[in-house]
Design brief:
mainly alpha; 3 helices; single chain; globular
Amino acid sequence: MSKLFSLDTPYSSRAEDRRWRPIALERRVYAGSVSDEEVAEYQELSRLLTSSVQSRVAEVAARLEQEQ
């Protein structure tokens, strides 16, 4: 549907911002510089922000196009 309306993503800008937060937290986890509160936030966001495989493929493709 997003292609029908020429949208890069089916998510709002607020949702996109929320989708990037777990990535930032995950990087901190691997770097070992994360607090217990951030771990809890990461787990909660990961639980809330699920999407279908097709949606994830479309998101990654749109991001790759934007980066080029």
